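step=encode ok
step=design start
structure_in=
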């Protein structure tokens, strides 16, 4: 929408083509060039007659695409097609039509190539270039002509693009980006142009549903103040060229997401709309930094259909181009930033280059900086709005990252966060620390506003009930909507309606057909949003036509179409209209069934994870864990197989979290993995290592006696395996915890044992630690003469190992 397209002067949409030879006129036209390549190679291999046949077949297919989208083939130039959209007949969406035609041509070409390879063993390449601009349109004799710079640029874009792609100019992109995803490509140096010309690669059509809204959305009521607050913050981001952080806080159903939706709508109507990307925090079972992954996927226009390798490659390529355009000219720094991002988000399991050797803290800092530079590069192109939904569910690292961006990003960036009050309970000072930060509490609607909303939703013959419903809803629009629906469907008087939102929703779910309700419950186990594929098992089980059931559920406004989140599954994703509906559906399931369904979903995800298992470890792990927890609540022991799966996935998720310095997450995962591992008979060596990881991740965040106990368990396990070196390390670590807690006696005992164990293995960091700790414990006890030799030994070992050993040297100085 908007974005600089306008109807061509004087030509109404849909008017039939003028009969002949109109006078020259200036028009806005979108020009498409499509060029076949590989022609010469094919001509060498095939008989000229065959070639001619093939080429004309292809050209026919290409012009069919033009026709199908309401364009006109202007001329064929050899094996090159030139088509116009917007002349002689203009449509309001000519740019979109042209891009659709371009993508359609590439798809048609793939088809033809598949055929040709089978029959003749040859293939053609196709390049498409599209550009929009003002041209002079007229006729010479029989044929029409367009002249203008825009035409040349279109031809050049086509020539400069890669085979198999659709390359479009700036104006076309702007006029069609509501309907098509684009990836940035490096600006093109075009013949005859002094400045590089910005270019974009059209990737895919947005699913029509991505721009469709819930069919029964209620008209917006009130919220003028809040909207102007958001717009004001956005303007301030632009005028100050500094990130602004606005956090909207309110209970479920009060209208936070709606406010964001309205903001999106208002911004989209501007001539040059800011880029708005949304990152959602799923209630559970999301990957690390999920909301940021969503934002970056959107920025890099990654399709759902892409395989893991493609995702990683495209993400890196596109972010690289973005950073370069944003002024980051150091290719190595760019490389490093994009590698870090791909690695942290789990798109690349094998870290590249310098990452391997780095400690988690540095990886995390580097990642924060990399995300920041990407956001700044986005903002260098045009103003940016990053909207993070439901951040009360975000983990601490994610909140830290948002805080980091809010604090350091330079450029016109508004960070809009939505959350429930829980956020403030967790982080009292969230979003208020700086002048550029602000928190706004979203109040319930005023009584007259609530009444207006209800009145709009009730059929005319129920209008008298509006005031009563509005009063019971207490200004919560979700509550108001749901009650109005019950009144409309059942004709109940407002005072007979259930008086909590949960009860209203439960009643509505009860009114569904049994099979519909079972599908809804199954979906609720998956999460707030889910792909169609994940529902296939239940559809099979129930032998129902999934599409039909889902259509009904959409009609009943339980489910809505969602933007794909890229968690798992295909391009079509659905979600609950509101997360509370999901919660109520979920809670209506008996625990035993919940457990069974979580396992079903986990297995489904496991099967499809394939080479994305790293990225999906948290999701799969979370489903398995839920199952285990429900069974425990029911007093059941999970079977071995489930335990083994929990252990595997939780350990993977733990390692991933630990690599990113998410210590509490990591220890939680390792703890769970350990418990299941113990039950499922994990081999002793693995068990010992897992125990050590658990102890290490507890160290610093748990009470010291817990930490010591964990190290001791690990120690015993290593001892049983005869792994003296590892046992010695555990002694040293346990001793360090005891020492830090002031328990010198026990600390010394551990250290002495550690030293005895470790000494036989030569120099090591662990031995240094043990020596230092024992030395320091003795010093602290006043046994200086016993301390000094140990500290000296530690210092010597340190310098032998090439490490600076500042601690021992400082003590000796
Ligand atoms: N000001 C409003 N006017 C009309 N409908 C609203 C308004 N605010 C919210 N709604 C509707 O109420 C429902 C719940 O709002 P939503 O934004 O999803 O709540 P939240 O995100 O705070 O949980 C949605 O269906 C939404 O369209
Ligand atoms: Mg919401």
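sequence_out=
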């Amino acid at each position: 929408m908007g974005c600089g397209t306008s109807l061509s002067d004087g030509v109404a949409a849909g008017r039939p083509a003028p009969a002949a030879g109109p006078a020259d006129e200036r028009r806005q036209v979108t020009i498409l060039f499509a060029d076949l390549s590989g022609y010469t190679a094919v001509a060498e291999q095939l008989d000229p007659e065959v070639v001619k046949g093939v080429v004309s077949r292809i050209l026919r297919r290409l012009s069919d695409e033009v026709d199908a989208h309401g364009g006109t083939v202007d001329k064929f130039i050899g094996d090159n097609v030139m088509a116009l959209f917007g002349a002689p007949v203009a449509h309001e969406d000519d740019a979109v039509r042209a891009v659709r035609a371009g993508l359609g041509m590439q798809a048609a070409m793939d088809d033809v190539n598949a055929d040709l390879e089978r029959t003749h063993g040859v293939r053609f390449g196709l390049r498409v270039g599209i550009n929009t601009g003002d041209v002079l349109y007229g006729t010479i004799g029989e044929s029409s002509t367009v002249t203008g710079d825009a035409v040349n640029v279109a031809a050049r874009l086509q020539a400069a693009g890669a085979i198999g792609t659709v390359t479009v100019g700036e104006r076309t992109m702007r006029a069609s980006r509501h309907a098509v995803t684009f990836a940035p490509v490096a600006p093109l140096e075009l013949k005859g142009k002094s400045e590089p010309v910005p270019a974009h690669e059209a990737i895919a059509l947005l699913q029509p549903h991505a721009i469709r809204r819930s069919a029964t959305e209620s008209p917006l009521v009130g919220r003028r103040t809040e909207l102007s607050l958001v717009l004001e913050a956005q303007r301030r981001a632009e005028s100050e060229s500094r990130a602004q952080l606005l956090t909207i806080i309110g209970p479920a159903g009060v209208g936070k997401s709606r406010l964001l939706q309205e903001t999106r709508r208002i911004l989209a109507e501007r001539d040059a709309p800011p880029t708005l990307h949304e990152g959602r925090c799923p209630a559970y079972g999301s990957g690390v930094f999920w909301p940021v992954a969503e934002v970056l996927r959107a920025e890099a226009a990654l399709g759902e259909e892409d395989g893991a390798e493609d995702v990683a490659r495209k993400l890196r390529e596109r972010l690289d181009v973005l950073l370069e355009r944003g002024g980051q000219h150091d290719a190595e720094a760019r490389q490093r930033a994009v590698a870090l991002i791909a690695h942290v988000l789990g798109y690349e399991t094998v870290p590249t280059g310098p990452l391997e050797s780095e400690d988690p803290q540095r990886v995390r800092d580097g990642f924060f900086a990399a995300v920041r530079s990407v956001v700044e590069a986005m903002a260098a192109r045009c103003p940016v709005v990053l909207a993070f939904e439901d951040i009360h569910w975000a983990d601490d690292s994610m909140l830290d990252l948002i805080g980091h961006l809010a604090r350091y990003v330079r450029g016109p960036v508004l960070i809009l966060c939505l959350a429930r009050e829980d956020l403030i309970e967790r982080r009292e000072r969230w979003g208020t620390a700086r002048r550029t930060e602000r928190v706004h509490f979203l109040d319930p609607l005023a009584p007259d506003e609530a009444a207006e909303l209800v009145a709009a939703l009730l059929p005319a013959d129920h209008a008298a009930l509006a005031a009563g419903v509005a009063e019971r809803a207490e200004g919560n629009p979700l509550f108001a909507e749901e009650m109005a629906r019950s009144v409309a469907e059942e004709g109940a008087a407002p005072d007979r309606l259930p008086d909590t939102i949960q009860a209203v929703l439960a009643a509505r779910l009860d009114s569904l057909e049994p099979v519909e309700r079972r599908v809804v419950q199954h979906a609720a186990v998956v999460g707030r949003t889910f792909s169609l594929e994940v529902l296939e098992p239940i559809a099979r089980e129930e032998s129902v036509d999934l599409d039909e059931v889902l259509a009904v559920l959409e009609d009943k406004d339980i489910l809505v179409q969602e933007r794909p989140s890229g968690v798992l599954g295909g391009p079509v994703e659905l979600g609950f209209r509101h997360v509370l509906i999901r919660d109520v559906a979920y809670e209506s399931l008996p625990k035993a069934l919940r457990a069974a369904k979580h396992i079903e979903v986990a297995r489904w995800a496991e099967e499809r994870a394939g080479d994305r298992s790293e990225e999906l470890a948290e999701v799969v792990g979370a489903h398995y864990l839920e199952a285990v927890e429900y069974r425990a609540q029911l007093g059941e022991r999970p079977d071995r197989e489930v335990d083994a799966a929990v252990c595997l996935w939780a350990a993977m998720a733990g390692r991933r979290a630990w690599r990113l310095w998410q210590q509490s997450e990591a220890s939680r995962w390792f703890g769970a993995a350990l418990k299941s591992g113990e039950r499922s008979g994990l081999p002793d060596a693995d068990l010992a290592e897992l125990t050590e990881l658990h102890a290490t991740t507890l160290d610093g965040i748990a009470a010291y006696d817990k930490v010591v106990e964990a190290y001791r368990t690990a120690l015993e396990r290593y001892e049983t395996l005869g792994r003296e070196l590892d046992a010695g390390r555990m002694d040293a670590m346990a001793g360090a915890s005891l020492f830090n807690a002031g328990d010198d006696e026990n600390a010394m005992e551990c250290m002495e044992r550690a030293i005895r164990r470790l000494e036989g293995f030569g120099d090591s960091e662990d031995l240094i630690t043990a020596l230092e700790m024992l030395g320091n414990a003795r010093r602290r006890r006043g046994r200086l003469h016993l301390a000094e030799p140990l500290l000296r030994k530690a210092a010597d070992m340190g310098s032998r190992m090439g490490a600076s050993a500042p601690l021992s040297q400082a003590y000796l100085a």
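step=design ok
step=annotate ok -> The first strand starts at residue 25 and ends at 37.
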